[in-house]
Structures
1.
Amino acid sequence: MKKVLVTGGLGFIGSHTVVELQEKGYEVVILDDLSNSSIDVLAGITAITGKAPIFEKLDLKEKAKVESFFEQHQDIDGVIHFAASKAVGESVEKPLLYYENNINTLVYVLKSILQLPTQNFIFSSSCTVYGQADEMPITESAPIKAAESPYGNTKQIGEEIIKDTCRSNTTLNAIALRYFNPIGAHSSTKIGELPIGVPQNLVPFITQTAAGLRQELSVFGNDYPTSDGTCVRDYIHVVDLAKAHVVALERLVSGNNADNYETFNVGTGTGSTVLEVIQSFEKVSGQKLNYKFAPRREGDVIQAFADTAKANTDLGWKAERNLDEALLSAWKWEKHLRNI
C-alpha cells in the first residue's frame, strides 16, 4: 500500500482528496494546523471511507517540527501539498501573513522531501498565476503575468521554487495543478466547504445567504466587459478536482511523467458569470437569493476559464460534473450543516 502525506488534509479540497486517495487504496497521513479547518472533518472522512487516516496537528511554519515529522516517516511515497492561506481579498490586506504561510512552509516541506528515498510532489497551485490572461480559454503555455494579489504571487513564487528545485534535483518529481474555482461537496454530505467566519468565496456565501445566515450577497462589480457585467470564472466540482490529484500522483508513482516538473490546468473549460451562478443556484435549490451589486473588489480579474486539453490528454482526466450538480451538492451540504 502506497503511503501519501496530505498537508492541509482537513481543508476543503484536501479532505475530498483524502477520501479519493483512501478509496483508491492509499494509506493517508494528514498534517493540518487547524487554523482554517475543523477536526470534525476527520470523522466525516472516516464515515465515508470506513477508515480513519493518520492525523497529526502540525504547523508547517515550525521548521524543526517539519524536519522531525519527515525523519519519522521515511516511507512516504508522495506528498500532496494543500496547506496555505487562500483568500485573495485577505492577502491584499495581510500580505506578510501570506508570504510566511505559503512560501516558508513550501520551502520547509521541499527540503524535507529531498531527504526521502521516494520524492513525488503534487502542488496545489492556481489559475491566479496567469493574472488577467490575454486569451480565453487559458492554456498552460499562457504567459505568467504580474500577480493581481499577494495570494496569486505566492502561487507564482511557489511554482518557481518547485521548478528551480526540480532543475537542481533530478530525483524530485513534481506536478503543479493550477485549479480554477472549486465548489460543491461530497455526495454523502459528510464533508464540504467549511469557511471560518465570513466566507471569502462566492458559493459558500450564496448557500449561507439562502440558509438565512447572511442577509444578502454582494456581487462585486457589474461593469466588467462580460456578457452581463459580472466576473467570469471556471467553477469545478471539488470531487472532480480531488480525482485529478489522485491521477496526477499515479502519474508520478508509475513514472509516466514526461518531465520532472509539469503543470496542468484543472477546470471544466466552461466560464460562468457570477449572475449565471446565482441563476443556476436558484434553479437547483428553489431558493430566491437576496443580492446586491457592490464596487469591484481589489485583486479580482475579469475572466478566467481553462483550456483543459493537456489534462484531458496527458493525465487522462476530465471533469464529469456540471455547474448545476456542483451547486446542488453545495446546497445539500449547507442544509446538512444547518439542519434545514
2.
Amino acid sequence: MDTKPLRLFLALADSLHFGRAADLCHVSPSTLSRSIKLLEEELGVELFERDNRSVRLTREGERFQAYARDTLTQWDLIRNSLLEDAKELHGEISVYCSVTASYSFLYQMLRKFRRQYPRVEIKLHTGDPEHAIGHVLSGHEEISIAARPDTLTKGLAFRPIGITPLLFIAPLEAQEQLPTKLPFSRQQWQEIPLILSESGVARNRVNQWFSERGIKPRIYAQVAGNEAIVSMVSLGFGIGVVPRIVLENSPLADKVRVLEVQPELEPYEIGLFALEKKLRSPLINAFWSLS
C-alpha cells in the first residue's frame, strides 16, 4: 500500500507552502506539485486554492485532510498489529540526523540493528539538526537524532545516547581582528566577530552565556549546520561555537584551535527522538531499544 501521496498531501495541508512541504518530505517542489495534481484528478475536485502568493485548502481539501489523517492512523495500527504476529520483523523505518551524527552515533547503531533485523529497511535522511525534532513531530520521520532541548514537547519521547561539550573555537592562524590572549575583556567580546548557529540548543546556550555577563556580542554570521561554522572559523572570519563531536569529526579540525573560555558553556545531551505513540510499533521500538 503506497501511503506517500497522503503524506505529501498532509505536509502541504499543514504548511501551506510548496517549498517547505517539499523539503520536509525530501522531494522536489515539482514532484510534490505533480502528486497533488494527480490526487485532485483522481478525486475529481480541487484540494487547494493556489496562486503566486499563497496556498489555501478548499472545503473539499479540509474534508480530505481529516480523511488522510484517519487513514494513516488506521494504517499504522493495522501494520503494527500484523507485525506483532510476525515471526521476523520486516518493513522500513525513517531516520533523520545530521551528517556528523550519521557516522559518530548512527553507524554503530545501524550496524547492530542490521545484524538483528536484516529484513528491516532503514531510510536515512540527513540535514540541519535543528529540524530533527520538527520532522518527528510532523510525522515525516519516525526517529531522529538531535540535542535535547530544555523542555520536551508533550508526546515526544527522548532516549539519551551521549553528551558533548560546546566549545569556542578560533582560527589556528592569528588574525588581526581577533585577540589572542585569554581571558577576553568585555569590550573585546563585544568587538569579536562571532559565527553562530541560526537557532537551537547551542544558540540558546551561547545567548544565555553572553546575557549572564551583560555582553552584547557582535554576530558576524548565522549559519545552518555546525560543519559550516567550523569552515568559516578556519578561514578566519571569526570565532564560533560548535559541539566537540562536530569538531572531532571535521576534516578542518587541524585548522582551528579550541579556546579555553571560562566558565565553560553548558554541554548538551544528544539522543533519539520519537513520538511516544509511535513506540507502540514493533519496528520503531526495536530500533529504540538498541543498547
3.
Amino acid sequence: MNAPLNHPLPLLDLDVLRTFVAIAETGSFTTAANAVFRTPSAVSMQIKKLEDILGRSVFARDARSVTLTTDGEMLLGYARRLLSINREVVSKFIIPDIVGVVRLGSPDDYGERVLPHVLKRFAQSHPSIAVDVTIDQSSNLRRRMDDRALDITLLTNSYKTSALGAEVLLTEPIVWAGAKGGCAHLREPLPVSLWEEGCAWRAGALEALGREGRNYRVAYMSAHTAGQRAAIMADLAVAPLPRSFLGNDMVELCPKDGMPDIGTYNLAMVVAPDASAPVKAVADHIRATFEVFRETGKF
C-alpha cells in the first residue's frame, strides 16, 4: 500500500533487508534463515512485512525455488548499498581500526571456489585491511610459509599426513568424478585426469588404483581445477575430487562402478606464529567461514 503524500514515508528495517539479501543470494528461505540465525517462519514474516511496506512482491515462490521479481531485483541493489553504508558507519565506532596488508596463500581449487566469497565478506567488515593472494601448490605454499613470504596459507594434505603447526579446517572424502552419463570409467586402461606431483588428491587416487591393481593411463594433466573439470565433462577421463566439488554435470563413481575408494583429505590452515592483528582477523574470518560450511554445506 502506498503511503499518503502528506505522511512521512516508512523506514526500512536493516535487519529485514539483511534477510532479504540472504534469501536473494542463496535462493532458499531455509538456507537464509541459518545464515541470519532465525527460524524459517521468522524469515517469512520479515519478508511479508517488507512486501506490505513496499506494496510489491519481491520474490516469486514455487514448490522448488525462490526467485526475485522485477521489483525484487531493483530492491536488491538498494539493499546492498544500505547495508554496506551501515557496516561502514558502525565499523568507524565499534570495530577497531585495523590497518595492514595480509599475504594469503591458497591452492588453486580453494582459491577459485572459496576465496572470492571469503574475501568479499572480509572486505565488507574490514575495509582497511588489504589481502594479497598467492595461488600455488600446497608444497610450494608450505615453503613460502617457511621462508616467511606468507602470513597465512591454506594447504591440502593427505589424511595420513599433516603439516607441522597446521590447523585442520575440513576433512572430506575424495571421490572419483565422472561425466553424467559418461563411460570413461569403463575403458581399459582407465583414463585419469590428475594434478601435478605433490597433490594430496593425486597421491590418494594413485594409491587406491595400485591397491586394486587397476590399469590406468594419465590421459590429462593440469595444475588447475578448471582443466580437471573440462576433462571430466568431455568424458575424456575420470578424476579425483572432493565430494563437495562435484557439479550438477558430474557423478560420483563408486566401487559398484568399478572404482576403488580413495579415502579422505584434510584442508588445513597455517598462520605465522608472530601474527599481527590484521593476520589474526583474516584467520578468524576463514575459521568462521568453514564452521558455517561444516554446518550447512555452503560457503
4.
Amino acid sequence: MTQRDYVVKSVVKALDILEMLDQEKELGISELAEKLQLDKSTVHRLVTTLKMKGYVTQNQTNQKYANSIRLFEMGNRMIEGMGFRRQCQPYLEELAMRTHETVNLAIQDGHEIIYIDKIESRATIKVDLGIGKRLPMYCTGLGKAILAWLPEEELDQLYGETVFKPYTPKTLTTLQALKEALAVIRQQGYSLDDEEYVVGLMCVAAPIWNHQRRPIAAISVAVPEYRFKEGLVTTDYGEVVKEISEKMSRELGCRQENK
C-alpha cells in the first residue's frame, strides 16, 4: 500500500479549513466552501466539529469563524518543550539591550521561517510579524541567514521550481540572484534584508548553529530604513548580531566560529 492509501480525506479537509482561516483570519461557511471547492454541508459539519473541540470560534455578530488560540497554545508548548526558546532568551535580551531595536528569533519550516520569539522596540515599524508568523525565506534576513549555509543541492530542491513573488521592488526574484546574495552572506557572516519584504524595514540576521555545524535557527535586528538614511544608526549591527549568534551556537555545542 502507498502513503495515499492511509490518508483520511475528512482530516485533510479539516486541516485545509484551519489553514484557510489562518490565511484569511475570518470566513463564513459559504466563503470557506467556495475557497476550498467543497460542499457547504461538508464544510458546515467539519467546522461544527472543530468548534466543538475548541479549534475554531464563531463571531456572534457576523456568524463567521476564526481559529481559536488553542493552536497557538499547542505550538507554544511544543517550542517550550524543546527548551530552545528558553536557552535563547538571555541572548535576545542582550541583543535588544545593545541595539535598542526589535530583535527576532526564527526557525525554518520548509520554504518558510516561523517567528518563535521576539522583543519589541518602540522605534520599529509596526508590521504583522508576531510570534507564529510565517514568511518566505528568500526575502527575509532570517531566512537568508539560514539558506546561506545549506548545501547547494538542498537549496536547488527548495527553489528549483519556485516562482519568486516580488513583495517589494527590492525582492530577489530568481534563484541565481538569491545564490549570489547568499555567497555575500557567507563571506560576511550575516545577512541583510534591504526592504525586500516590507518597504521601510531593514533586518540584519545571523544563523544559530547546532553541534553538527548546521543552521537550525536565526536571530535578527529589525531597523526602520529611515534610521539608516538619516545616519541615526551608529552600532555595527552585522557584527553585533554575528557575535551574539556565535555565543548562542557555542551553547548549543558548536565550537567553530561563523566565518
